[in-house]
Design brief:
The chain is α+β, with helices and mostly antiparallel strands. It has helices at residues 2-14, 18-32, 37-52, 60-73, 77-94, 97-113, 117-134, 137-153, 157-174, 177-193, 197-214, 217-233, 237-254, 257-273, 277-293, 297-313, 317-334, 337-354, 357-402, 408-427, 438-455, 469-476, 478-493, 519-535, 569-585, and strands spanning 459-466, 501-506, 509-515, 538-541, 547-551, 555-562, 591-592. It has 25 helices and 7 strands.
Length: 598
């Protein structure tokens, strides 16, 4: 990388005419964009200035495009959009397809960051159409990777992994070392979201190694942020703090404030988990300061929420209420739904401790409503992503046909494979609750028990049964019963970790699979679920949101865990089922483990 930079700098120094200098500047900017983005932006602005002064401005479109690319990398999205749109208009007028494709790609990137996925899809698929026709593997790999980013934002992790894999393959064929590092990091992010933290760590470490090898500080910052998050999720807090601190140092050097805010938030979380609340508050406050100074509203809302949590734990209730109310209002304004409902959950607890029970109840009801909406929206986004996949595949086939590539048979096979995948998703999802169904749970149990044996990690299973559920259907009717099941699921889900798997076994029976969990913690989780269900009335609402019924229900739970080498699906189900039977036999509304089975 350094040798290439030196070569480009030499060419720039040897440029004689303005036209030669513009071309040399553009070549240097493209190499520097991920290594020294601030310098790259300054050089691109010089190129734009020179190009505007040229008769007929022949080099203006590529230089404007590169200025927009650098602005995107530095998270200056409005500045980037203005430059890219002007470049797009010029490149279309001149028939410059390469610049047009690049503009469309980065405009898609901006739309995705701003949660405008339909526009992002339209732009990126148009870019793929162009890059396919030009047989530009490096750019094609980047656009495949961008489609992975869009699928990731839609919570379609399987789709994201597929597109990231295509992008990595294209980038490897093109020899795009910078792109390879980015793809490795993105693949690690997918594994992290799916709870496969060991795999996430492997890919993020590979991405970091690649970034260091090619000398890209910007990519090194991103990789360090990813690694820090992995260590924190794995509860290796001290390692996470050290890695995040390095990310902050490098991010401040490059003024990559978005990454700095992310790293500070991860550090704060690690400090909070190790009871160092003063250090946590310092990290969150610094992240808030940076977010406000750089108009990073999502980071600002999350920092306010995190500060509110710390203040609550310190007993500073008035300040906690102020910060969390700010977080809720900002999150609502920008559509950060998860931060919004989490903020109302904390607000409910703060108001309860302050003795303002009416406000606490109101905040709690808002939290429950928003949480339910978020889970519903995420399910709808996953369904939407299937349609998007079909549209993307359609555009890809059109591009290949225009390029004269005879791949009709392989495309038909790909379409059939995608159709089978969608059918599999429908066959493994419970339509009422949106949870994994019986079939999916069996597959998840097989996979988790096999992993437990392979990695020598424990796993646990909770068998949950709603007490006297038949009487709810008999008294109130099946529509109310269905609503109770959905509310029950939302209540239980709030008690679990992201990596825990909640599914509907059948009727009013549910399974909770707890990866990496031993018997003692499994019993604690089960009791948390049981007490939460028993303590909270389930509010059944009509289509307009008005409460139709307020029902108190209870549940019985059987808990079973097995040591790693003895983990089998049937043994785990049998043990949990026997424990559930014991809980019902002993009076219901209780938790029993294998030791309670007579």
């Amino acid at each position: 990388m350094q040798e290439l930079i030196i070569t480009r700098e030499t060419r720039l120094a040897e440029a004689v005419t303005d036209a030669e200098r513009i071309l040399a500047l553009d070549e240097l900017v493209w190499v520097l964009r991920t290594v020294e983005p601030i310098r790259a932006l300054a050089l691109s602005e010089e190129a734009v200035s020179l190009a505007r002064a040229q008769p007929n401005q022949p080099g203006l479109a590529p230089s404007l495009c590169l200025a927009g690319v650098c602005a995107v990398i530095l998270s200056r999205y409005e500045e980037a959009r203005e430059a890219l749109n002007e470049s797009l208009t010029l490149s279309r007028r001149l028939g410059d397809k390469a610049t047009e494709g690049r503009c469309l790609h980065y405009l898609g990137a901006i739309h995705n960051v701003l949660s405008e996925q339909p526009a992002a899809i339209e732009n990126v698929t148009a870019a793929i159409h162009i890059f396919d026709a030009l047989q530009d593997l490096e750019s094609l790999g980047a656009s495949y990777n961008m489609l992975g980013n869009i699928q990731f934002s839609l919570c379609d992790y399987s789709g994201a992994l597929e597109w990231y894999g295509r992008g990595l393959e294209a980038r490897e064929r093109a020899g795009d070392q910078v792109g390879i590092a980015g793809s490795l990091g993105n693949i690690g992010n997918v594994y992290g979201e799916r709870g496969d933290l060991a795999d996430a760590l492997v890919f993020h470490q590979r991405g970091l190694d690649q970034a260091i090898r090619i000398g890209s500080t910007a990519l090194e910052i991103s990789s360090l942020c990813n690694l820090g998050g992995d260590y924190v999720d794995l509860r290796r807090y001290e390692e996470g703090i050290a890695v995040c601190r390095r990310s902050v140092e490098l991010g401040e050097t490059l003024e990559d404030w978005e990454k700095v805010a992310v790293a500070l938030t991860s550090m704060g979380f690690a400090y909070a988990k190790t009871k160092r609340r003063t250090e946590a508050l310092e990290c969150y406050s610094r992240a808030l300061e940076i977010a406000r100074a750089n108009q990073l509203q999502k980071a600002e809302a999350h920092s306010l929420f995190s500060i509110g949590e710390i203040l609550l734990s310190q007993g500073a209730l008035i300040q906690a209420r102020e910060r969390t109310a700010e977080s809720a209002a900002l999150a609502s304004a920008i559509g950060a739904r998860r931060t919004e409902f989490q903020s109302f959950q904390v607000l409910a607890e703060v108001c309860k401790r302050l003795g303002d029970y009416a406000a606490a109840l109101g905040h709690f009801e808002t939290f429950r409503r928003l949480e339910k909406e978020v889970f519903t929206e995420e399910a709808e986004e996953r369904a939407k992503s299937m349609v998007i996949q079909m549209e993307v595949e359609h555009h890809r086939r059109e591009a290949e046909a225009l390029a004269g590539i005879n791949t009709a048979l392989s495309e038909a096979n790909a379409a059939l494979s995608e159709a089978n995948t969608r059918l599999e998703a429908l066959a493994t999802t419970d339509p009422l609750t949106g949870l994994p169904n019986h079939r999916a749970l069996v597959a998840a149990l097989d996979a988790q028990t096999a992993r437990s044996r392979r990695e020598e990690r424990p796993c646990a299973l909770l068998f949950v049964d709603i007490d006297h559920f038949k009487s709810i259907n008999d008294i109130y009717g099946h529509p109310i019963g269905d609503a109770v099941l959905r509310e029950f699921v939302a209540c239980v889900r709030a008690c679990l970790r992201e990596e825990d798997i909640l599914g509907r076994w059948g009727g009013e029976e549910f399974l909770i699979l707890l990866p990496g969990t031993g018997p003692e913690r499994a019993l604690r989780v089960a009791e948390r679920v049981r007490s939460s269900v028993a303590a909270q009335p389930l509010l059944v609402r009509d289509g307009g949101g008005a409460v139709k019924k307020s029902l108190h229900i209870t549940c019985s739970i059987g808990s079973a865990a097995c040591p790693p080498q003895a983990a089998t699906r049937d043994d785990l189900i049998l043990a949990a089922d026997q424990a559930l039977y014991a809980a019902k036999r002993l009076g219901r509304n209780r938790v029993c483990g294998v030791g309670d089975v007579l």
